[in-house]
Design goal:
It contains eight helices and 20 strands. The strands form six sheets. It has a six-stranded mixed β-sheet. A four-stranded antiparallel β-sheet has the order 1-8-6-3, with no helix packed on it. A four-stranded antiparallel β-sheet has the order 5-4-2-7, with no helix packed on it.
């Protein structure tokens, strides 16, 4: 008996998926455990197994098409078996916003440029013909131009008196306007008087559109919900990074992996969370969860958006362990090979834009966390050290807090502790 294959929920936040590639075609034999397709979820591109055995009778989607979770995407059965009645058991290819079309819509090219080659003349109440004798002269009787040419010249900001006509008896027609460039302009007058003529700058308008990826849809939904449901407030603190910079340089002389400033921030944040457990929490509506473990999400930019893999038990890991893990996550994120266990379970999140030269910024809280730390660049400046003005390296951090869970004094105390760890890095070893 024929069986339907439905699109599974491959992550906790997945609502629909995109078929990136079918590994089998209609007529092929499949068995349980075969990788039927590659599916783009909101987090990554993942392999989808088939659990039926038989002949692939029907594929409901083309490569590039999207479908909601639990919709029918394929049918497996005996060769020649009638499966039409099975397709009525649920949506075949309609996305959640669609109105159940009778057949799957043809895929839309993702990034086809749409270029406006030229301005289009506005319609007028009566037809305009270039060969018409009507309107063949301007208010200046010496100027011969078609109405369409005049209209087009006006739209383009062209002084029609400067255009050479190629029509009968020197009449200016549409193509003369289209082919006109300021460099080909002739003087408006032979008079010795100097006239100021506006320079006409021409160009081509254009744009392109792409379909919203599953990742970007999820980012929009989750962060939109976070921003407008969680009452955010922000605390910014400047930290002296002189000793942290020296410590990092010294550690990199003996470490097997290169330790970044972000690795130091992760380690210091984990230590600060251990001393300020109220920050390591989540709002659950009727409850507040205070996490006893510290799993730090590290925001990473990828081509389609943002991924947040999680460094688990960050407070118990060395700097070299953190560095190796973050680098591996970065590689997997770019290759879209992160798995659900890689991006789930965060209790606190760090977003670092310092490598782009950003001094400071605010970040939107990453649910279910109560806080997120935005990290700016380490920059050279001047400051007062022991009563003397000296060159120093500083870094600004901004803590975004969910006011339903965290109060101002809690957030301030966390930043104070973080500052102590980064300004005296040896504290991380105690």
């Amino acid at each position: 008996m024929a069986e339907v294959v439905r699109l599974p929920k491959m992550s906790d936040t997945m609502t629909e998926g995109v078929i990136v590639k079918w590994n089998y075609k209609v007529g092929d034999s499949v068995k349980s455990g075969d990788i039927l397709a590659e599916v783009e979820t909101d987090k990554a591109t993942m392999d989808m197994e088939v659990y039926a055995k038989g002949t692939l009778l029907h594929l409901a989607l083309q490569e590039g098409d999207a479908a909601p979770v639990d919709s029918i995407i394929a049918v497996v059965g005996a060769p020649g078996e009638d499966f039409s009645s099975l397709l009525s058991a649920g949506p075949v290819s309609a996305a959640p916003a669609a109105s159940a079309p009778a057949a799957p819509a043809a895929p839309i090219p993702a990034a086809t440029p749409v270029i406006a080659a030229e301005p289009i003349a506005q319609p007028v109440s009566t037809p305009v013909a270039e060969s018409s004798a009507e309107g063949s002269t301007d208010s200046d009787e010496r100027l011969k131009a078609s109405p369409l040419a005049k209209k087009l010249a006006q739209d383009k900001g062209i002084d029609i008196h400067q255009v050479n006509g190629s029509g009968e008896n020197g009449r200016i027609v549409k193509k003369d306007i289209e082919n006109f460039t300021p460099t080909a302009a002739k003087p408006a007058s032979t008079s010795t008087a100097v006239t100021n003529t506006a320079v006409v700058v021409s160009g081509t308008e254009g744009f392109h559109e792409v379909n919203v990826s599953q990742m970007r849809k999820t980012i929009a939904a989750r962060l939109g919900e976070s921003k407008f449901s969680a009452p955010h407030f922000y605390l910014t603190l400047e930290i002296n990074m002189d000793k942290a910079t020296v410590a990092r340089e010294q550690m990199n002389t003996i470490s097997d992996v290169k330790i970044s400033m972000n690795d130091l921030v992760i380690k210091a944040s984990a230590a600060a969370l251990r001393k300020n457990p109220n920050i390591n929490s989540s709002w659950l509506g009727t409850k507040i969860r205070y996490n006893h473990h510290i799993h730090i999400g590290v925001a990473m930019a990828v081509e389609d958006g943002l991924l947040v893999p999680v460094v688990r038990f960050a407070d118990n890991k060395s700097l070299s362990q953190i560095s190796s893990e973050v680098k591996e996550y970065g590689k997997k994120a770019k290759e879209k090979k992160l798995q659900p266990q890689d991006w789930s379970g965060n209790t606190f999140t760090i977003s670092n834009l310092g490598m782009f030269g950003i001094d400071e910024f605010t970040a939107i809280i990453n649910p279910p966390d109560a806080c997120i730390l935005a990290v700016g660049t380490v920059k050279d400046t001047v400051g007062v050290v022991n009563g003397e003005i000296k060159p120093v390296k500083t870094m600004k951090v901004t803590l975004s807090c969910d006011h339903r869970v965290v109060d101002g004094t809690m957030g301030a105390q966390f930043l104070k502790t973080l500052k102590e760890y980064l300004e005296e890095p040896y504290r991380l070893l105690v």
